[in-house]
Specification:
By secondary structure, the protein is α/β, with parallel strands linked by helices. It has four domains: 2-74, Ubiquitin-like (UB roll) (Roll), CATH 3.10.20; 132-293, 2-Layer Sandwich (Alpha-Beta Plaits); 303-368 and 540-698, Rossmann fold (3-Layer(aba) Sandwich); 376-533, Dimethylsulfoxide Reductase, domain 2. It has 23 helices and 26 strands. The strands form seven sheets. It has a seven-stranded mixed beta sheet with strand order 14-13-24-23-22-15-16, covered by helices on one side. Helix 13 runs antiparallel to helix 15 (474-480) and helix 13 (438-452) packs across helix 16.
Length: 747
């Protein structure tokens, strides 16, 4: 289709609005209330344009481009109209600095004045230099405001974690309200009052925390002024450089932009084009991650134990000490742990070290599940979504964004598991069962589907499944689990009429959880549902695929502890601080970690390793996407990546193949050994291409015997907030308030 804008002939496809089309072609139309991903609001009226053949002016953000249109975005009348509108907006916003003739020089000399408690001008505002209102004032050409200035004199709210609210700076664009309602599905804030008294607030003027805010930071990211700001960034100067990184605090793989000044992290915000998160974040990635780099608990140099005391040492001394201790024991008496919070390259190096050491046992502190790749964005196309044992609005908020899109498109959401969830108002069927009854309930659900003939699966012999299922009556099973039998049948019927279906599950239904994971796999095959395992750890999915490169001898953390206690394992090499293995003290304990933990304080040798922000590497997120990045920060002290630590130790032990430690060599070696990682070899940091694991897109077509699965038993379940031994709840007071709030809203 063809359109003319300001005399330029343009072609377009689809159904863009005039504002989107103009910006895509380098034509600037001032606007303050629009934002990508939000519905048109047409509140600021700054984007008014003229269309030939129509009376008056129309908002470009709310007008769909049409074939043959002739659009005018600039004229004497439009310029005057915009100036008048903007002057009215500025009359209720501190404007002296915006129109001051000396503002350029003033910014140079008063850039630290923003440390004051309340902003009454640009030089006092933390958004100075990155404020959209400043940009629009310059674009429209405002040099004076003819109306009396009105200062609202509202209280600056500082009673919530992470976010300050100064509605004296608010221009009522509605972005924060709309992103909270339309994108995040939280509905924490809204317009309150009417007329000149209207502000953005909460019900009954409660704090954000008491109103159920999840502190994702989306409202702060879309605010065009300084009305909503990140408290920790307010007293800081602007970053002098930025770097892209992958947030390592869960299995989503959110891409973030790290603002850095003088080697310190100033800001962390989601990138607008992040392939996994599309400009969204969660409380940990948005506000907490920066604290990890400045933690006082960092390990800055190697340590060796002398006369019962850990003391700092040089790298060569630490390597020699660790190698000597490692060689004192036979291969079958050695073991190591592998962390799903390391990079792909670090885990691969661990596999090589394990094979060279001929270890007797190894354990992976991971809950990842190997399954066909499944993009998060495909969730929004589902008609039926079932959450199994996970409250994704809390554990994986980015996935919740896609689920919420599906709900807005008419999908139905069901929950199956033990314990309450915080999104009850969105759940059509809530099967909240007693803990320990998950396996028989899943079997009963499969029985009902078989009885009613509502199976949608494309493979598997249902006769095999009938033989696998227990002979119990579904109604009796439901009652024993505390579930209404009618609700169980309603869920079974939901699969029959609402396709496609998606199963989202947490670690309790993973491959390593025995019967529950097997029963869920059988159910997904029976109804033809796509299944997505939501990893808690940043590289849980990557470790699940890399498991096959390790030598035989994988065991559970519980069994490893028992082997140490019985002296079958006498030398143990810990990864990432040995979180979950506190109290394990074999004859030889070698630790690698970024933060001090109880286990590392008992070690014979401690090697300081780096975090994801200080390491060049790659992760595989829960959808199977491979993402690579460069280090955003230099390592603190003399810390090194695990690839270099294990290579250095391997060289002292004279292991073959540990000479090269560079990332490209490791990636090529891995791609040659495992075809699933074929795309990794040529993947450059920040590569915009979608690179996924090369795994079969066909799910298993065989129903598995549930009683043949390994029993889960008593497990060591780590705190999902802990990263490489760092506990952000303990070190970041704001997160502690969010996690421990007694008034947490159940919606």
């Amino acid at each position: 289709m063809n359109i003319t804008i300001d005399g330029r002939a343009l072609t377009f496809e689809g159904r863009p609005n005039l504002l989107e089309l103009a910006r895509a072609n380098g034509i600037r139309i001032p606007s303050l209330c629009d934002n990508p991903g939000l519905h048109a609001y047409a509140g600021c009226r700054l984007c008014l344009v003229e269309i030939k053949g129509r009376n008056g002016y129309v908002p470009a953000c709310a007008t769909e481009a049409g074939d043959g249109m002739e659009v005018l975005t600039r004229s004497a009348d439009l310029d005057t109209l915009r100036r008048n509108i903007l002057e009215l907006i500025l009359s209720e916003h501190p404007n002296a600095c915006l129109v001051c003739a000396e503002k350029t020089d003033c910014n140079d000399f008063k850039s630290t004045a923003r440390k004051v408690g309340e902003a009454t001008g640009c030089v006092l505002c933390s958004n100075n230099g990155r404020c959209e209102l400043q940009d629009v004032v310059e674009a429209v050409g405002i040099d004076r405001v003819r109306h009396p200035s009105i200062y609202r004199n509202l209280e600056v709210r500082k009673d919530d974690p992470f976010i300050d609210r100064n509605f004296n700076l608010c221009i009522l664009c509605g972005r924060c309200v709309r992103v909270c309602h339309e994108v995040r599905g939280a509905a924490t804030i809204a317009f309150v009052e009417r007329g000149s008294s209207a502000i953005v607030g909460t019900p009954q003027d409660r704090t954000l925390l008491d109103s159920g805010c999840r502190f994702c930071g989306a409202c702060v990211d879309v605010c065009p002024t300084g009305a909503l700001t990140e408290r920790a960034a307010r007293p800081e100067l602007l970053p002098d450089r930025t770097a892209r990184a992958i947030c390592p605090l869960c299995g989503i793989g959110c891409e973030v932009e790290v603002g850095i000044r003088d080697g310190r992290i100033i800001t962390i915000s989601p990138t607008a084009d992040g392939p996994a998160n599309s400009g969204q974040a969660c409380v940990k990635g948005r506000f907490v991650l920066r604290a990890s780099a400045a933690s006082p608990n960092r390990i800055l140099e190697p340590h060796v134990r002398k006369d019962g005391v850990l003391i700092p040492a040089g790298w060569e001394e630490a390597f020699e000490k660790a190698a000597g201790l490692w060689k004192q024991h036979r291969p079958e008496e050695r073991a190591l742990t592998v962390s799903a919070q390391g990079t792909i390259e670090e885990i691969f190096q661990s596999a090589k070290f394990a094979a060279a050491s001929e270890i007797g046992a190894w354990t992976a502190t991971s809950e990842g599940t190997s399954c066909p790749t499944f993009r998060f964005k495909e969730i929004s196309q589902a008609r039926t979504i079932v959450l199994f044992g996970t409250d994704i609005s809390e554990t994986h908020p980015i996935v919740w964004v896609e689920v919420f899109k599906a709900l807005r498109n008419g999908a139905r959401l069901a929950y199956f598991g033990a314990g309450p969830i915080s999104i009850k108002r969105h759940v059509a069927l809530n099967l909240e069962a007693r803990a320990g009854h998950e396996i028989p309930l899943l079997a009963a659900l499969a029985k009902i589907i078989l009885e009613e003939g509502s199976a949608h699966g494309s493979g598997g012999n249902t006769d095999d499944l009938r033989r696998i299922l227990e002979p119990d009556v579904p109604e009796d099973t439901a009652k024993a689990a505390g579930v209404d039998p009618d609700d169980l049948r309603s869920l079974a019927r939901l699969f029959a009429g609402e396709q496609p279906a998606v199963f989202l599950h947490g670690p309790d239904y993973g491959e390593d959880r025995g019967g529950a994971g097997t029963a869920l796999q059988n159910l997904s095959l029976l109804v033809g549902a796509r299944r997505l395992s939501l990893s808690v750890n940043c590289n849980g999915r990557g470790l699940a695929e890399l498991r096959r490169l390790f030598p035989a001898g994988e065991t559970s953390p519980e069994n490893l502890i028992e082997a140490v206690k019985s002296k079958r394992i006498k030398a143990l090499c810990l990864a990432d601080g040995g979180t979950g293995l506190e109290g394990v003290r074999p004859d030889v304990l070698i630790g690698r970690g970024a933060f001090w933990t109880a286990a590392l304080r008992e070690a014979d040798v401690v090697f300081p390793n780096t975090t994801a922000l200080e390491t060049a590497g790659s992760f595989v997120n829960a959808e199977g996407r491979i993402q690579a990045w460069d280090a955003a920060l230099p390592p603190p002290g003399s810390a090194r990546p695990d690839t270099e630590i294990l290579a250095g130790l391997g060289q002292v032990l004279v292991f073959e193949g540990f000479e090269a430690v560079d990332i490209p060599s490791l990636r090529k070696d891995l791609a040659a050994r495992d075809g699933a990682f074929a795309g990794l070899a040529e993947l450059a940091p920040g590569d915009p291409r979608d690179v996924f694991l090369q795994v079969s897109v066909e799910a298993s077509s065989t129903f598995l015997p549930i009683d043949a699965a390994i029993a889960a038993g008593d497990r060591i379940d780590g705190n999902p907030d802990i990263y490489k031994g760092w506990d952000p709840v303990r070190e970041v007071k704001g997160l502690a308030r969010v996690r421990n709030s007694p008034k947490k809203k159940v919606t």
